[in-house]
Amino acid sequence: MDKMGSGEGPDNLQYRWCHLRKVLERTGPFCHPDFEPSPDNLNFLMESCKLLVIGAGGLGCELMKDLALMGFKDIHVIDMDTIELSNLNRQFLFRRRDIGQSKAEVAAKFISTRIPGCHVTPHFSKIQDFDETFYRSFHIVISGLDSIVARRWINGMLISLLSYKDGVLDQSSLIPLIDGGTEGFKGNARVILPGITACIECTLDLFPPQVTYPLCTIANTPRLPEHCIEYVKVIQWSKENPWDVPIDGDDPQHINWIYEKAMERAVQFGIQGITYRLVQGVVKNIIPAVASTNAVVAAACATEVFKLATSCCVPLDNYMVFNDVDGIYTYTYQAERKEDCLACSQVPTTVDIPGPEAKLEDLITVLCESPKFLMKSPGLTATIDGKNRTLYMPTVASIEEKTRVNLKKSLNELGLEDGSQLMVADSTSPNTLIIILKFASPPDFEME
Amino acid sequence: MIKLFSLKQQKKDGETAPKTGNQKKPSAAQLRITKDINELNLPKTCNTEFPDPDDLLTFKLIICPDEGFYRGGRFSFSFKVGPNYPHEPPKVKCETPVYHPNIDLEGNVCLNILREDWKPVLTINSIVYGLQYLFLEPNPEDPLNKEAAEVLQNNRRLFEQNVQKAMRGGYVGSVYFERCLK
Question: Is A37 or A206 the better-scoring residue by pLDDT?
Fold first, then answer.
C-alpha cells in the first residue's frame, strides 16, 4: 500500500494536493467575497502557517491527524498528561507500549513519522508554563480541552495579546481560537475571534454547572449512591484523612478506600448501586467519551482552521452544537458578545500621569477628577514582577489600613513604570477596568 | 465577517513584544474578585481580615451577631477563592466551633448558595448575607448537625440554653466547645 503522498517528487506533490488546489486556486459560489484564488494560498498554508493544538487527548489526536493531512506542516501541541490504558480506545495515536509516556511527545512523533513533510513540535507541559511571546508566534490556536479553567486561561491569554490603537483593535494582533468540546454523544465547535466575536468568558454560563448535592442531604438524608460517595469525598476524607493528602482520583488506593467507606454508608441507609466504577466516575467527574463525537467535532474544527488560514470560505459564525444521541442533530448560531464581559470587553484605557515621581494619591486624584473617569473611591491592584499587589483599597478597613502607606509613595517606588497596567475597581463601573499608565515625559536615560 | 489578511504574515519565534512588556494580564477571576472586594458592603455585624492584602483570594470573615440565639458570639469563616471564580463558588469553612444545626463540627456549612444554588452573578457580599442569615434563622429542616436540629425543633428553650453553654465555653452533650463570646 502506498503511504500517503510519501514521495517528494513534483508529480507526486502535484497529485497529493490537487484537491486543495481546486479549492484554493479557483473561485466559486461559496467563496468568501474577498477571496483571491492563487497558489499563494496553499503556499501560505504549507510553508508559513503555524498552528498550536492544545490538548493531545481524544479531540487532540483527531485534530492533529486532520490538520496534518490537510497540509499544515508546522504544528505545535501542548499537553501535560501522560497516556493511560483507558485512553487507547479512542486516542488512536497511542499504543499499549506508550502507556505512561507524554501524550504530546508520542502524538508528535506519530504524526511526524506517519505524515511526510509535517513537523509536530511537542510540549509536555501546562499551558500556563508559556508566556505571551510563545503564544504570539502562532497564527491560529485550536483547543481540545476538558477543563473550563484551561479554556478561560487560553482565552484570557489571546485577549491579552490584542493591541488597540486609539481604542480601535489592531487586527494584526488577533489570533483566532477554534475551540472544540465533547461530552459523550454531544459536542460543539466554535470560532472565537478575540475582541470581535463572543469569547469563552462571554458564554461562560453555557457550561453545565458541576453536579453538586446539598450538603445536608449528603450528611443526613442520602437517597442515591452518589450521595454516599460524595459524603466520603467531602466530609469523611477530611475527617479521617487516611494518607494525610488530598484525594487523588488516579490513585487506586484512594478510590478503593472511598469505595469501601461509601459501601458502608450505603448499607447503613439501605442504598444500592455503589460500584467501583461509579466511585471513580463521581470522584473524577468522568463523562464517558465517544470516539465518533470527537471525530465529528475535530473535523468541524479543522475545517474552520482551513477556512481561516486560506480565507477561501466564510468561517463558522460562530457556535455549532452537535448531538447524536438520537439520530443526528446540529445547529449553528451566533453566540453574542457580552457587553460587560470580564475578559473581552476590556479595552485598556490610558491615564496620563506627569511621571514616575507622581504619588499614588495623585493617580487616584486623576481617576476621581478627570472627566474620562470620574470615579468615587477606586480600589487599585497591579501585577508587579509576576505577583499580585494591592496598591490601595479604600472600602475594606483591614486592607485600607495596610495599604494606606502606599498613598504617599511614588509610582516609581511602587514598581510602576510607563506602560504599566493597573486594575481599578470602582462603584461607577460594572467591571474592574484595566488602565495603562502613560508618563508625560519619560526621562532621557529610560529611552530605548 | 472580517478576512484575516493579517494572518498571512510570517510569524517569528521570539518576536519582540509590544510595549505592554512582560506583564501578565490579570485573570478573569482576579478582575472579578477585585471588584467584589472593593464593593464589599458589610453589615455592621461583619468584618473582614486579610492576612496578606496582596492576596485578595484568601481572607476571613468575622460575624458578631447582634440579635437572635447567637447574639454576643464571634464567629470566624475562612474564604478561599479559586481560579474558576465566579464559575465556581469560593470555599467557605467555619473556623469557630459552633453549636448550630447547619454547621457541623468540622466547620462545613450548609448554605445553598455555597454549593448547589451558586450562580456566577452572586458575589462575596451575597455569601456574607447568607452566612449572617444562618445565625439569625438557623434552619432545622436541612440539618448538618442533626442533634442540634432536633433540639431546635423540639425544645427551643433547651436549644437556646445549649447555644449559650457552647458560646460561653463548655460541653453540650459529649462535645466541648471553646468560648467564643466577644
Answer: A37
